[in-house]
Each structure stands twice: as C-alpha cells, then as structure tokens.
C-alpha cells in the first residue's frame, strides 16, 4: 500500500504564524483604513504615513498579538477541521463530499473565532495604537500584557466583546479557506494534469483565498460601518438593511484591498502547511 503523511493537529497554527509574519503589515494597514473616521488615505498613502511618522518597524506593531491570535484562532479551527476530516475520510474510505467540508469548516471556524476573540481585540488595539495621541496610547508591551491589562481594568467580559461577530466571520473564512482549498486541490488532482506539488498547492490556495474574501467581505463591510457609525445604526441587522439599500455591490466595497491581504495570507498558510505535512507529518497507509 502507498504511504502518505497527514498533518499533526498543531501544524495549521504554525503555518498561520509563518504567514502572519509575512502579511502583518497588510493586516495593520487594513485596520488603520477601517478605523479612519473619514476616508482620507488609501492603502499606499496609509503605509507611507505610518512609515513617515513612526518608522518602518511601526508596520509590525502588534505582531506578538497577531501571532497569539493565530495560535488560538487558527490552531483551533485547523485542529478541529483536519482532525475530524481525516477521521471521517478514514471511516468513509475516501474524501468527504463538499457539503460535509463546508459544515465542518463552519463549525471549526466558529469555534476558533470565538476562542481567538481576546487575542483579536488586543491585536486591533496594538495595531491602532500608533494612530492615537501619545497620552491616549495604551502601550501594551506585548499580547499577554495587553490581555492582562484588559482583564484587570475592564473585566473578563470585555475580552470577549464582539465574540459573536468574530466567530461568524471565522466560520465564513474557514469555509472559504479550508473547505474550498480541499475541494480545489481535489479537483485539480483528479484532472491528472498536475501532481501534488507546490504549484498545485499555490493554485488551490489562491482559489481558496478568493473564495474566503468573497464570503467574508460583506461582514467586514458591516463591521467597518458599525465601527465608524455615530449612532445611526441600531445594530447589525439595521446596518445590513441600510447597506442593502445602496445595492448589492455595497457589500463588496473594498474587495480588492481585502483580497490583497487575505489571498497572500491564505496562499502562504497552505504552502507552509503542505511543507510541514510533507517533512514532519504522521505517516499513514493510503
């Protein structure tokens, strides 16, 4: 029988950390753009503004929180998805149908999104700190210090504020990334044109990154509108109704900047994951 390798449960978290180290400046710029009170700068202008005011390394503000987020959010969703998928595939003696991958991705992403909420909140605060006046900055030393300060000053409930939206977004992103990556890779390999190599991983992850951006962009738009609102929305539902009145394309405003950040992160995550699986995975008989 042929031999293959499967991931260890923590490989997804490690791969996501590697990708985060490469794409963190894009994530930081996205947060800065989303929290502008008025649209004054685009991505390039914001990058130049941050570098000019605080130096190049300011693009990596909050990196420790970003890594901590990946070790909670991404490790949880990958561990749930890949562990259960491999167990079910072994029982079924074949790959799962796409709808099962979608359901599994949604469950894993929702759980991971909620688990990663505290780190996500600290991550946003640390990234946005550089924009605040010196006397208003929180100046967290690192992610764990940020969590301790929030817990001590604002309480446990504050750490999980926005948890429902983070969990919902996590479900959509995970369906787009993990379920669509698996399905795209499966379809590419069944053609017989390409083998299981790095080009296949790149192609499948590029498709998955586009799917993830398409699925979660409407929620990102609503989140941004709520963050920038001055009391005109009564909640997420009301915000969605008001946005829908502008037309369906209003939900995809900023799609390109979002894809510029999420697609490279998705590609790097799966390229790193496949290499970890290839060289350090658990050997099983196919």
CATH homologous superfamily caption: Mitochondrial carrier domain
CATH topology: Mitochondrial carrier fold
Gyration radius, to the nearest Å? Answer: 20 Å
Q: Return the CATH class.
A: Mainly Alpha
Structural class: mainly alpha
The end-to-end span amounts to 6 Å
Indicate the CATH architecture.
Alpha/alpha barrel
Helix content: over 70%
| SSE order, one letter for each helix or strand | EHHHHHHHHHHHE
Which helices and strands appear, and what pairs or packs with what?
Layout: E1 3-6, H1 11-34, H2 43-54, H3 63-92, H4 98-115, H5 117-128, H6 143-154, H7 156-159, H8 163-190, H9 198-228, H10 236-244, H11 255-280, E2 282-285
Antiparallel strand pairs: 1-2
Helix pairs in contact: 1-3, 1-11, 3-4, 3-5, 4-8, 5-6, 8-9, 9-10, 9-11
Question: How would you explain this protein's 3D organization?
Answer:
The protein is mostly helical and 286 residues long. It has a single domain (3-280), classed as Mitochondrial carrier domain (Mitochondrial carrier fold), CATH 1.50.40.10. It has eleven helices and two strands, in the order E-H-H-H-H-H-H-H-H-H-H-H-E. The protein has helices at 11-34, 43-54, 63-92, 98-115, 117-128, 143-154, 156-159, 163-190, 198-228, 236-244, 255-280, and strands spanning 3-6, 282-285. The protein has a two-stranded antiparallel sheet. Helix 3 runs antiparallel to helix 4 (98-115) and helix 9 (198-228) packs across helix 11 (255-280). The longest helix has 31 residues, at 198-228. The mean pLDDT is 87.
């Amino acid at each position: 029988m042929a031999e293959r390798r499967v991931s260890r449960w923590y490989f997804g978290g490690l791969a996501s950390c590697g990708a985060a180290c490469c794409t963190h400046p894009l994530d930081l710029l996205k947060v800065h753009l989303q929290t502008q009170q008025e649209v004054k700068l685009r991505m390039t202008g914001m990058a130049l503004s941050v570098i000019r005011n605080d130096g190049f390394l300011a693009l990596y503000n909050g990196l420790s929180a970003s890594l901590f987020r990946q070790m909670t959010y991404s490790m949880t969703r990958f561990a749930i998805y890949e562990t259960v998928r491999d167990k079910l595939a072994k029982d079924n003696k074949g790959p799962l149908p796409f709808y099962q991958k979608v359901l599994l991705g949604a469950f894993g992403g929702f759980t991971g999104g909620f688990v990663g909420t505290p780190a996500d909140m600290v991550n946003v605060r640390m990234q946005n700190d550089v924009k605040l006046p010196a006397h208003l900055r929180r100046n967290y030393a690192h992610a764990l210090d940020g969590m301790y300060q929030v817990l001590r000053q604002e309480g446990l409930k504050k750490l999980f504020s926005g948890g429902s939206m983070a969990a919902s977004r996590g479900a959509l992103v995970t369906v787009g990334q993990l379920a669509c990556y698996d399905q795209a890779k499966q379809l590419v390999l069944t053609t017989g044109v390409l083998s299981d190599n790095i080009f296949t991983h790149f192609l499948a992850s590029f498709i998955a990154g586009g799917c993830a951006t398409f699925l979660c962009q409407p929620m990102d738009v609503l989140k941004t509108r709520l963050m920038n609102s001055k009391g005109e929305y009564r909640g997420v539902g009301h915000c969605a109704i008001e946005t829908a009145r502008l037309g369906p394309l209003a939900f995809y405003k900023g799609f390109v900047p979002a894809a510029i950040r999420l697609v490279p992160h998705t590609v790097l995550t799966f390229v790193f994951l496949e290499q970890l699986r290839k060289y350090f995975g658990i050997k099983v008989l196919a």
